[in-house]
Amino acid sequence: MALTLVVALLFVTGLGDLRGxxxxxxxxxxxxxxxxxxxxxxxxxxxxxARGAEYLPGSNVLRLPNGDLRYLPPGSSVxxxxxxxxxxxxxxxxxxxxxxEEGVVPGANEDERRMAARALLDLRLLTEPNGAxxxxxxxxxxxxxxxxxxxxxxxxxxxxxxxxSYEVLEFLAGVQEPDGTWEARYTTDGAPVDxxxxxQLDATGWFPWAVWFHAATGTRDAEEVRTLWPAVRSAADAxxxxxxxxxxxxxxxxxxxxxxWRPNLGTAAPLRAGLRxxxxxxxxxxxxxxxxxxxxxxxxxxxxIEREFAPRGYPRTARPGxxxxxxxxxxxPPFAAPNPMVSRAVDDAAGRLTIPNGxxxxxxxxxxxxxxxxxxxxxxxxxxAAAGGDRAAADCWLGWLAEHRTELxxxxxxxxxxxxxxxxxxxxxxxxVVVLALRSKEEPLPVPGYGxx
Length: 453
Fold this sequence. Notes:
Layout: H1 6-13, E1 34-37, E2 42-45, H2 47-50, E3 54-55, E4 62-63, E5 69-71, E6 80-82, H3 87-101, H4 110-125, H5 146-158, H6 162-175, H7 203-216, H8 222-241, H9 265-285, H10 288-308, H11 340-353, E7 373-374, H12 375-387, H13 391-403, E8 414-415, E9 421-422, H14 428-442
Helix pairs in contact: 4-14, 5-6, 5-7, 5-14, 6-7, 6-8, 7-8, 7-9, 8-9, 8-10, 9-10, 12-13, 12-14
């Protein structure tokens, strides 16, 4: 998920604490309302071109207000407008519908299934043939964030699209740094992006979790897991090696892409899930030494989280007053077994972070515009509610997300104070979390170290 480096400056200078006194710039206008694609190229549809149009169900083909169709033919990067009976458009519709039918399209009703199908097709359009899964198709976002990509792999796996899941994981394994970590983001050809963003240690947790999830949801080829195991081992070694004498990883950049001096929950919680996942993978592959090591590291980290974060209600950092953070959901199902204290903290955070437009901001001390909601964090509360068995709350969050999509039914990154989608769409992380939430409503998702709760 792309965040501006201005945020880091606000944090360092302390301006982020002056929320009531600051003037916030207008959110970036919506750059694209959706995508057209053919498997090799994509075309971001500008909002003015989307007006009055809609995707044919289960496809990447647009029906225009006059009934004509618009799509991206194979081998082209320029869309064409054709009559309703055009054979090329018909073939494009058939191809995407067949792909969806290879897996599961979750949803309790037709509206939810259409929302899930659109999200899945968008995730596919955001994934390059080499497995590079980008945040969004717009220059500042057209990069692979290992966290976002891991979630996208999990969404593919949860719906039975294990080929795509494996391709994304294979790409991530290929760009892993020699020390087992990842940079904040990569180009689609695998080069790290050197723009001053600090590395984000949470990837060393998300990647093992995604590989484990890929396996736990029924991958058809156990050899895939064995192929990915060296990268999982390196990540888990880096995660366990990052734990200090207090059992926690050091402070650093979390998903806010802002460095914290103290350990933060947005890093510690994914590392716990990743270590548990790595231990389970190691055990299944017969690596007893690694299984014991990662189990022990996960236990140390779990105890440290309970000691340093739990007494304060699981805030963003171990510092008193750091405020609620949507990352508390990473401590709840489907990442850990149900815990009453965590459940209360998730509910409390959801209430504290909900803003007047009905969505949520990432945290209480979030230094950007407090009237703008972020769809990934809103979706995290939908997933937590669904995985925790609170169907009413899950439906409420999912309903808000559905109501604030673009005109083409695509999830944007942000929603402004007037309820309008902003910046880019589709955003891969949001689509992935929504797919997992909808799938979780149908059947419990597996939890690393605990199976299915």
